[in-house]
Amino acid sequence: MKNLLTAVLVCLVAAVFTGCSSNSPRSVAEKAIKCMQQKDIRGYMELVYFTEENKAQKDGMIQMYEEKAKENSDDSDVIESFKFVEESIDEDAGTATEVFEVTYKDGSTKQQPVKMMRDDNGKWWVKMEK
Question: Does any domain span residue 28?
């Protein structure tokens, strides 16, 4: 009986950890917004999906965005806070849109959609918009 109880508890703990997985579209999108809030360009780009062909361009893009961030000291694009608004997931297409209300340091607010995609392994990524 004691072994059965231990096995059940282990399964419950495992289910809780699996259910709290950080690979949901919302959790990845929240991480992306937090990276932008902290001006962590490299952290943000680690959440963006790159094809095998485009991975070589990743470091160059990171460097370019980091330089732009240093040059821009305008408070109109510095994120003060954000909160989740809504989620739209298309399981068949493997896409999602996570919408956040973003408040900037200058006091303005904007609803910011974050486009997401799921890769062949089921991992969610920020979709690079052209």
Answer: yes
pLDDT tens column, 45-103? 999 999 888 888 888 888 888 888 777 766 677 899 999 999 999 999 999 999 999 99
Domain range for 64 is: 22-126
Beta bridge partners of 100: 84, 112
Q: Within the chain, where are the H helices?
A: 2-19, 25-37, 41-45, 55-71
Side-chain-side CA neighbours of 128 within 13 Å: the count stands at 14
Intra-chain end-to-end CA distance of the chain, in Å: 59
Q: What are the distances in angstroms from CA 104 to CA 65, 99, 112, 126?
A: 19, 16, 12, 21
Question: How far is 49 from 39, CA to CA, in rounded Å?
Answer: 19
